[in-house]
Design a protein that fits this description.
This protein is α/β, with parallel strands linked by helices and about 400 residues long. The chain contains 13 helices and 17 strands. The longest helix is centred in the N-terminal third of the chain and has 21 residues.
Length: about 400
């Protein structure tokens, strides 16, 4: 866990060393990722799959090697169940329109929770509106934990899908995915898991979870933007119609005979893919696996515990989201100070945090808050940075109290 692997962490902001506590929004990139993408463009830039020349063969090998890495990263049964998409959001929209929409009828129901990111709310609102279906919401308690008994009570013969976040981006709550899936599967209800905030922090085993779909983004796990992954059980992916048309998703095209579609995973990967980004994602996965997700989780939990204990000593500091099982996200309020003011003043000390509704407006409404401030930690952060953060919070209070 070498901070020197991340070049950006050496820079200064407003004359102060950068303290980057906005990891839930996006993580910084290690040198290995930057080098892998640079090498592709410098050494073997070519399109994949369609060329028989040497550069295309090398690019195709590197691109598909990442798919093998993804399979291992989430313990998927097969590479063909691992689709490259643009992002977690893109993955959820794919499932919404290709899996859910053709199956939904008026009066059917989709179940999500009060903890969800907008990316796991709006696609379901859209398909429900298209089909005349209903969106049902799992309530949460004041600690930010799902009410499991109420969840089970929502399940019925009209429930067609559960779409649930593994970890809340706004509060850090870790949801009991195994129990959620088990209860859903007892009624033959498929489950999609939004894993955007879980993949950076813990080992993901889709076979152990037994979820039907699992989505995550590269840029949350120290890789580049503009690429993500959708895992789907083969039986569902085979039955689903293509999401987009063109390029590698076709087997044959004819004006007289029509179009036949390619096999998995190409069936869902239309057009020229994000090749350099896929190669960068492969490098990011290798980097994380070399450290070990268990070690990363232990380190980040230590940082969260330290921050939680030290901020408790700060007058007027209130943590928002106190679930027993949490990832390394600390959302909070500071008495008498708006979250946007907190983020603005902390930036002057070189500290990057997030303020606002965190793309979780229904959650903020449930909590009775317009916004929160959020510090989110990575294994490359330090206790000394947390001390600087707390010092800056105290200075913020002093400044605004004048």
């Amino acid at each position: 866990m070498n901070r020197a692997d991340f070049p950006i962490l050496a820079r200064q902001v407003h004359g102060h060393p950068l303290v980057y506590f906005d990891n839930a929004a996006t993580t910084q990139k290690p040198e290995a990722v930057l080098t892998a993408m640079d090498n592709y463009y410098r050494q073997y830039n070519a399109n994949v799959h369609r060329g028989i020349h040497r550069l295309s063969e090398e690019a195709t090998h590197a691109y598909e090697q990442t798919r093998k890495s993804v399979r291992d990263f989430i313990n998927a049964p097969s590479e063909k169940e691992c689709l490259f998409v643009r992002s977690t959001t893109d993955a959820i929209n794919l499932v919404a329109q290709s899996f859910a929409r053709p199956r939904l009828q008026a009066g059917d129901e989709i179940v999500i929770s009060h903890l969800e990111h907008h990316a796991n709310i709006v696609p379901w609102q859209i398909v429900c509106e298209q089909a005349g279906a209903k969106l049902k919401i799992i309530p949460i308690n004041d600690a930010g934990e799902l009410c499991f008994d109420e969840y089970r009570a929502l399940l019925n013969d009209r429930t067609r899908l559960i779409a649930i976040g593994h970890v809340s981006n706004a509060l850090g709550t870790i949801n009991p995915i195994e129990k959620i899936v088990e209860a859903a599967h007892a009624r033959d209800i498929p489950v999609l898991v939004d894993g955007a905030q879980a993949a950076p922090h813990m080992n993901i085993d889709v076979q152990a979870l037994d979820c039907d779909f699992y989505a995550f983004s590269s840029h949350k796990i120290y890789g580049p933007t503009s690429i993500g992954v959708l895992y789907g059980k083969e039986k569902w992916l085979e039955a689903m119609p293509p999401y987009q048309g063109g390029g590698d998703m076709i087997a044959s095209v004819s004006f007289t005979e029509g179009t036949t579609y390619n096999v998995l995973p190409a069936k869902f990967e239309a057009g020229t893919p994000a090749i350099a980004e896929a190669i960068g994602l492969g490098a990011a996965i290798a980097y994380l696996q070399n450290i070990g997700l268990d070690k990363i989780q232990q380190r980040e939990q230590a940082l969260l515990n330290y921050a939680t204990n030290e901020t408790a000593k700060l007058p007027g500091f209130t943590p928002i989201g106190t679930a027993k099982e949490k990832a390394s996200i600390l959302s909070f309020a500071l008495a008498g100070v708006h979250p946007h003011d907190i983020a603005t003043i902390l930036d002057q000390y070189g500290i990057a945090i997030r303020s606002g509704h965190h793309c979780a407006m229904p959650l903020m409404e449930r909590l009775g808050l317009p916004a929160t401030a959020r510090a989110s930690f990575s294994f490359y952060n330090t206790e000394a940075e947390i001390d600087t953060f707390i010092m800056a919070l105290a200075k913020t209070q002093e400044f605004l109290a004048r």
